[in-house]
């Protein structure tokens, strides 16, 4: 048995498992997804692929642990003890980028459900009602503001331009992004928000973005504009959103994430006709295992060579 280990808690194909062994011949590779029994000294686990709090949190409490790198299986890592990881100098990489395609497609599924009357038609079909509308909205020529221009934001922007939307991208730095012709810094949102017919939240969750979308934000938007949240649930003040939907300030809300999940059965959101709820499924990716392993494989190649990890390293100063 080798004296340092790579613990695989994410499902891998036989080919992927062999690839890890080939890339890291000096490591014991433990398939923890197929076998829940850890037949290897926990203190000698150096790398974890696909962190699972229920299975692997105990490593952080082990004073003899040699854990150096965690490859998370999600883009959001706010549920992990980031301050402790930082204190222990453990590298954390996330799965940013693998959800870009499915989330972007979900965003446009939500938009079209509203603008083309599909949501209303589904409800009518349930009740066997034939009622044609004379007024529907075309996306072409409208303006979308995408708040959070990471990998998911870029994919949403790419599709938005294909639909003929004008896109305002928002990031922290204001640095140019290839996928959009107009980029603004986050603190410039108040100057431009009234231009947006649709606002899409893809911000990571931090202390600064918790309840970021509140009454003040919603009332600053164009009256009747649409709001889509595929970022993090706690970024939205739910009570404020409900108020602004009821008073007509927000014309449509497509919501995939919520402060508390599952969404409580007594939540007023269920009964608002302006709201489309999906149960945190926008990130479900058909090719999840393939895309996640590609990140891990590239980073593992660099790690074994003693180089800096090239992809998705979490900056503990910003917690994303």
TrEMBL record:
SUPFAM superfamilies assigned to the protein according to its UniProt record, in alphabetical order = Formate/glycerate dehydrogenase catalytic domain-like (SSF52283), NAD(P)-binding Rossmann-fold domains (SSF51735)
EC number(s) from the headed UniProt entry: 1.1.1.290
Checking InterPro entries in the record gives: D-isomer_2_OHA_DH_cat_dom (IPR006139), D-isomer_DH_NAD-bd (IPR006140), NAD(P)-bd_dom_sf (IPR036291)
D-isomer specific 2-hydroxyacid dehydrogenase NAD-binding domain span: 108-282
CDD domains recorded? PGDH_1
Q: Which residues form a coiled coil?
A: none
**What keywords sit in the KW lines?**
NAD, Oxidoreductase
Does the keyword Oxidoreductase belong to this entry?
yes
The UniProt record lists the D-isomer specific 2-hydroxyacid dehydrogenase catalytic domain at 11-313
**Which GO molecular function entries does the Swiss-Prot or TrEMBL record give?**
4-phosphoerythronate dehydrogenase activity; NAD binding
Assigned protein family: Belongs to the D-isomer specific 2-hydroxyacid dehydrogenase family.
PANTHER family reported for this sequence: 2-HACID_DH_C DOMAIN-CONTAINING PROTEIN (PTHR43333), D-ISOMER SPECIFIC 2-HYDROXYACID DEHYDROGENASE NAD-BINDING DOMAIN-CONTAINING PROTEIN (PTHR43333:SF1)
What name goes with this protein? D-isomer specific 2-hydroxyacid dehydrogenase,catalytic domain protein
Originating gene: pdxB
């Amino acid at each position: 048995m080798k004296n340092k280990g790579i613990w695989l808690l994410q499902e891998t194909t036989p080919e992927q498992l062999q690839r890890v062994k080939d890339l890291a011949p000096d490591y014991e590779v433990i398939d923890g997804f197929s076998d829940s029994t850890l037949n290897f000294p926990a203190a000698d686990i150096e790398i974890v692929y696909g962190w699972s709090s229920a299975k692997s949190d105990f490593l952080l409490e082990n004073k003899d642990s040699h854990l150096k790198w965690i490859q998370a299986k999600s883009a959001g890592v706010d549920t992990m003890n980031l301050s402790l990881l930082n204190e222990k100098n453990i590298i954390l990489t996330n799965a940013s980028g693998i959800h870009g395609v499915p989330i972007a497609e979900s965003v446009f599924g939500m938009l079209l459900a509203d603008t083309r009357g599909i949501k209303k038609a589904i409800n009518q079909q349930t009740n066997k009602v034939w009622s044609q509308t004379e007024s529907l909205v075309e996306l072409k020529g409208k303006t979308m503001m995408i708040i959070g221009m990471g990998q998911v934001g870029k994919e949403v922007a790419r599709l938005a331009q294909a639909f003929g939307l004008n896109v305002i991208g928002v990031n922290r730095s204001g640095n140019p992004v290839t996928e959009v012709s107009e980029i603004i810094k986050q603190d410039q949102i108040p100057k431009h928000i009234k231009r947006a017919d649709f606002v899409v939240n893809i911000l990571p969750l931090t202390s600064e973005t918790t309840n970021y979308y509140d009454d003040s934000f919603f009332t600053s938007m164009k009256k009747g504009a649409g709001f889509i949240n595929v970022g993090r649930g706690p970024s939205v003040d739910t009570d404020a959103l409900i108020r602004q939907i009821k008073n007509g300030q927000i014309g449509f809300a497509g919501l995939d994430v919520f402060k508390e999940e599952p969404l409580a059965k007594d939540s007023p959101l269920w009964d608002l006709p302006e709201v489309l709820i999906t149960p945190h499924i926008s990130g479900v990716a058909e090719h999840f295992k393939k895309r996640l392993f590609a990140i891990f494989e590239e980073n593992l190649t660099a790690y074994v060579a003693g180089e800096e990890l090239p992809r998705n390293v979490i900056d503990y100063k910003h917690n994303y």
